[in-house]
Amino acid sequence: MSWRPIAVFVVLFVTGVDSCSPVAGWRPLAIEEEMLDADEVLYGEVWRTFPDNTGEQWRENLYTAEVRVYCIMKGRRSSQIINITDVGLFIASNDC
Residue 9: phi, psi to the nearest 5? Predict the structure, then answer.
């Protein structure tokens, strides 16, 4: 299986995220730029989530999301249900 960038649009409720200050001049990509850069673009909804049970402390805020795919906007055919791993808030340390 080859790994390719995929943009997935899902319905999520996001609370605040603390982070370090961005590099001067940096800006996040617009959604259109992300879609153009991705090999596959899917539209779907998170159906279920599964916590990461590896026991590694740095992964305690990560989980796997089971996504129901409603529409393939770009790319090859996909299963109706896909799993996306390492979803969530990644906290490596308090240092920036």
Answer: -100, 120
